[in-house]
């Protein structure tokens, strides 16, 4: 049979190891939650950026279409003006 002092010391060592393991597990859990929070924040930022970029793209496409329409109208007017000038010069 073991002396009571050694049994108590062994039990205290096991308790210290269990507490240390628990502290490590808690630290790891806190770190994972912090990382998950950071990831979720990054995902929210990416979604916000995507939404903003999609809106900017829509606006750019609208402006490009509008410029194309204006360009066609200017081209049509230039052709009309050139035809008018040719008609005047041909008289």
UniProtKB/TrEMBL annotation:
Per the record, the coiled-coil ranges are 5-77
Which species expresses this protein natively? Rhizobium etli bv. mimosae str. IE4771
Q: Record's superkingdom?
A: Bacteria
Name this protein carries in UniProt: DUF4164 domain-containing protein
Q: Which of UniProt's keywords are assigned here?
A: Coiled coil
Q: Which Pfam families match?
A: DUF4164
């Amino acid at each position: 049979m073991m002396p009571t002092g050694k049994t108590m010391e062994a039990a205290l060592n096991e308790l210290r190891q269990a507490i240390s393991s628990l502290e490590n597990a808690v630290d790891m859990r806190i770190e994972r939650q912090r990382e998950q929070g950071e990831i979720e924040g990054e995902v929210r930022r990416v979604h916000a950026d995507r939404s903003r970029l999609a809106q900017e793209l829509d606006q750019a496409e609208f402006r490009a279409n509008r410029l194309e329409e204006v360009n066609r109208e200017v081209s049509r007017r230039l052709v009309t003006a050139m035809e008018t000038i040719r008609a005047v010069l041909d008289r």
